[in-house]
């Protein structure tokens, strides 16, 4: 997410602050142009970067537990002693500064160098499976999203030196999916912001990443994963991190080239490509992703119409009052809403007609974005699991 550039707030921490200035054991000041959070936990004092490295959440508003601070937005955790990101969705550490206490005053001194993470396995991965009584020799992760990536990265960071294999149906290496409906879709972020790590990361970390790979079966007796291409991957431990997939409308015309769902980087690229010449778009769904898509495409100057089954956007999650507020906020920016729509008339589908125009956008310039449903391995057509 693009960060807002502003002058740093609070006192100059290099000039010192009285310990009595700390409110609830914390205070935000600055060192040069960088905002720094000072935290007192018990008798310990820490100085760290004031914002979460995930989406810039203010750590001063988070919960401090011992030497750990929790981001109030998405619950990432950081070690106040080292700055290490202890829990996803944050992957990068926050900066740390040395502190000095003198005469009941605290002074923030030099920034500490962050040790380079050692993610490469210490030894070559074993060629045979480890015995059941030992640590796993091979871990297979099904899924190429942020959860699967965070698991693989943390395994290496914690010293696991066995084989790690990631099987992803996507065409691109793991990306920051939320950005696909936010800044990147709006045109405010370059594409090199989207990957969670550079392509070189995987080889350097000894992570075997297989893209465009569809898993069709799991044999728990032989401990093997089968793919649509006929290849099998043996494992000691298996992690299912498939995430969610977009819901597709079961109506005529839903597979037309101007009808889109949003999950992958390829999906987002296709929407951006269509948006270059589009004048109008309709978004089906008024929850988080749908409204983010609406705001992003509106930022591109496209007329947006949101269609949803509920009475007001976000009502099921945030309640009626906040739903009205969210709707009004979007309407101030020119978004049009049609709510309480359970389904379009069966005669319309996605074809252009006078009867359909209030429900659908049938010109080539209209784009559709739908919600998501969790992937369920037991659903028809999904991977089978052999017992």
- State the order of secondary-structure elements, H for helix, E for strand: EEEEEEEEEEEHEHHEEEEEEHEHEHHEEE
The count of strands amounts to: 23
Strand-residue fraction? Answer: 25-35%
Global Rg = 25 Å
> Main β-sheet: number of strands, strand sense, barrel status?
6 strands, antiparallel
Low-confidence stretches: 123-130, 352-368, 372-387
Query: From the helix content, strand content and strand pairing, which structural class follows?
Result: alpha/beta
Distance between the termini: 43 Å
Helix content: 10-25%
Q: Helical stretch count? A: 7
How do the strands line up in the largest sheet? Answer: 1-10-9-4-3-2
Which whole number gives the mean pLDDT?
Answer: 85
Basic shape: globular
